Amino acid sequence: MTTPPATATDAVIRVSDLRKYYGDVKAVDGVSFEVRAGEVFGLLGPNGAGKTTTVEILEGLREPDAGEVRVLGLDVARDADRLKPRIGVSLQTAAMYPKLTVVELIDLFRSFYPKSRPTDELIEALGLGERRKAQSKELSGGQRQRLAVALALVNDPELVFLDEPTTGLDPAARRALWTLVEELKASGTSVLLTTHYMEEAEILCDRLAIMDHGKLLEVGTVEELVSKHFRDRAVRFDSNAALDGALLRPLPGVTSVAIDDTDTLVYTRDVGATIGALLTAAEARDVDPQNLAIRRASLEDVFLALTGRALRD
Amino acid sequence: MRALWTLTVANIRSFIRDRAALFWTLAFPLIFIVLFGLIFQSAGESRLNLAWADADGSSQSGELRAALDAAAGVNVEDFAEQDALDRMRRGEVDAVIVVPGGYGAQLEANAGSDTPSAPAVVRVYTDPSQASLQGSVYQAVGSVLAVINMNDRPPLVVPQPETIQTENVNFISYFVPSVLGMSIMQVGIFAAIPLVADREKLILKRLAATPLRRWQLVGSNVLMRMLIALAQSVIIVAVGSFLFGVEITGNLLLTALFVILGSVAFLALGYVIASFASTEDAANGMTSVVQFPMMFLSGIFFPIQAMPDVLQTIALVIPLTYLADALRQVMVGGVPFASLGVCAAVLTGWLVVCFAIASRKFRWQ
Asked: Rounded distance, CA A225 to CA A219, Å?
């Protein structure tokens, strides 16, 4: 999964010290990162982290307050006319003219671009064949997202922005969209996607950035992020007031403890010693750790360690 | 250019598939026309008022007058010729019958002769812009003359049709262009609702991420509304003429120009509404707030001169007053409230002001 270091030429997006403030709210507060040609890059963070603002600045839909932004080597603000035909955009809300059909909408968007992919090919690629004559308001959530992606692909773009493409979709529709992103990647298209699903980020993204409160907390591959923060494994059980941090931290092998309303995570270098001591301590207090489990640290653990809170739907 | 046209077609499709938009812009005006047409048609046709101008004063002309007066639904009053024609211009009588001097003598000469010379003539003045009324007059006069001419060939008396333009366009002829003006207003200002909806759903934002230009987006809206307004004109005029015999006597090109000017001016007003309405519901409410006063204060349903002073002042500034007035003048020769130049200037003024406001205040996202 490791990608070679980016050179100056193969970055499709280069952002440095990007800032966007709305009054006192620092929506984007000094963000820098690069997306390399042909990779799927994820911006992962909770709602309100500043992901959408960042992406919309890259798409040329918002003006940054400060910072440098180059997309496909072009200045987004100054070269918008040259940039727009080369990128594809799917916004967070996938709404389209409600009374136009799938075919009509794709044909409409094709007319905006100097070159475009054939309508039937797009409909086929996005599995919308049975709904080609359906008006967009009649589509299910998953179909509407696929249509939004189809519209993002009409111009056969070099770089595609997908803002929360699977939010609100059922698991089957989500998986169908993942397959689509993988196909895009296989065809050499660069993808920048935002998500607040850990699993999605782990499966799809070559590299990702964790974002919270307008700042990037960490950038790297999933493995890099996990191994950087955790050499350890985690022992988890349902949170219980009797088993608090003061009790857990001194146990043998423990490196850190994270407790929230539902989950208690005990990171350890020595799983056997920690669990043995934990069970003894629990018995002494006459409680039983529920749903006890051991696992490797995951992206979720990284996120928790970085932001101090769990990332949930 | 291809994008502009494709988007225009897409807009038209969306419009036609939107039942609410179709109702307000097409069904609603047609309902008005049919309803008011039926009410005023029956009231208007109950009695035919003829002015009788007899320059001959013979017994033969007296007989003709008596025969006309006796015909069903016909009322005859005597006036001097000039007075009769003036009254008709003012709309006080429906037609004027003039019996020229020598009418009786001509009839007598022909009656006693085996080789009759030219038949005697009565002149019948009607207004061709009021086709159904004209028809009724010809019918009434024709049936009376048929009795006199019964056994005689060639005829003893022939009617000589004369035309005169009356100031008083009958109600339905006045109403059809007015309603057309109203529906053009609706096509324009109702544009605010889909505009705000498209912005709310971030469709405008999505379009901004494509190479489509804003002028193409606005241009397609203008084109679409113009085409719909023209289609509407054809439908409304067709219904008016098919059901109530309203005849469009004026210049079609000039009519089309005012239809286009009106639809663009009201579309600009629609953009102004969309500039201040942040939700679709707000846009709906604001459109009604603009629509209804305009509808009732622009002289469509009652003449402006009949309104109280305060309302007349309002009527003086609202654009629909001038669009409806111009359409009445151009299409059916209505009495001008303002000259066509003033109408065009006021509509252009509204267009410019609305455009200026919308281009400053309209938000795309």
From this structure: 7
Q: Which helix (H) or strand (E) holds B46?
A: none
- pLDDT tier at B234, thresholds 50, 70, 90: very high
- Cβ within 8 Å, pair A111-B7: yes
Assess contact for B233 and B253: CB atoms under 8 A. no
For residue B330, CA distances in Å to B71, B250, B251, B252 come to 36, 5, 6, 8
DSSP secondary structure string for all residues of B260-299: HHHHHHHHHHHHHHHHH--SHHHHHHHHHHHHHHHHHHSS
Compute the Cα dihedral for B244, B245, B249, B251 and give only its sign. Answer: positive
User: Is pLDDT of A3 > 60?
Assistant: no
pTM of the model: 0.74
pLDDT digits (tens, 9 = 90+) for A194-252: 988 888 888 999 999 999 999 998 899 888 888 777 767 788 888 888 888 888 888 88
Percent of chain A with pLDDT over 70: 95
Chain B residue numbers with beta carbons less than 8 Å from the beta carbon of A61 are 205, 208-209, 365
Q: Which of B22, B206, B280, B364 should we substitute to test contact with A (largest number of A Cβ atoms within 10 Å)?
A: B206
Tens digits of residue pLDDT in A110-160: 999 999 999 999 998 888 989 999 999 999 988 999 999 999 999 999 999
Q: How far is CA B316 from CA B184, B225, B238, B299, in A?
A: 19, 26, 30, 10
Q: Which of B165, B167, B147 is nearest to B157 (CA)?
A: B147
Nearest CB neighbour to A99, from listed B7, B17, B211: B17
> How many interface pairs between A and B have CB atoms less than 8 angstroms apart?
63
Residues on chain A bordering chain B, Cβ-to-Cβ distance under 8 angstroms: 59-61, 81, 84-85, 87, 89, 91-93, 95-100, 104, 107-109, 111-114, 135, 151
- Give the chain B residue whose CA is nearest to the CA of A154: B210
Average pLDDT over residues A12-21: 94
Region of poorest pLDDT, from A183-192, A285-294, B20-29, B35-44: B35-44
B339 phi and psi angles, rounded to 5 deg = -70, 160
How far is A43 from A38, CA to CA, in rounded Å?
16
First-residue to last-residue Cα distance in chain B: 24
**Contact assignment for B3 to A111 by CB distance below 8 Å:** yes
Q: What percentage of chain A has pLDDT greater than the value 90?
A: 49
Residues 6+ apart with CB under 8 A from B302: none
Nearest CB among A61, A96, A114 relative to B209 is that of A61
Is B6 within 8 Å of A99 when comparing Cβ atoms? no
By a Cβ cutoff of 8 Å, what residues of chain B touch chain A? 2-3, 5-7, 10, 13-14, 17-18, 198, 201-203, 205-212, 365
Handedness of CA B256, B260, B265, B267 (dihedral sign): positive
In terms of residues, how long is chain A? 313
Partners of B201 on chain A (C-beta within 8 Å) are 93, 95-96
**Identity of the residue in A95, A111, A112 whose CB atom sits nearest the CB atom of B203:** A95
Mean pLDDT (chain B) is: 87
Token pair of B237, please? 């005029």
- Which secondary structure element, helix H or strand E, spans residue A95, and what is its range? none
For residue B189, give Cα distances in angstroms to A81, A255, B222, B271, B359.
32, 67, 12, 8, 16
Interface touch A99/B202, C-beta < 8 Å: no
Q: What is the mean pLDDT of chain A?
A: 88
CA distance B14 to chain A (A): 5
Question: Do residue B14 and residue A100 have CB atoms under 8 angstroms apart?
Answer: yes
Cβ(B166)–Cβ(B174) under 8 Å?
Answer: no
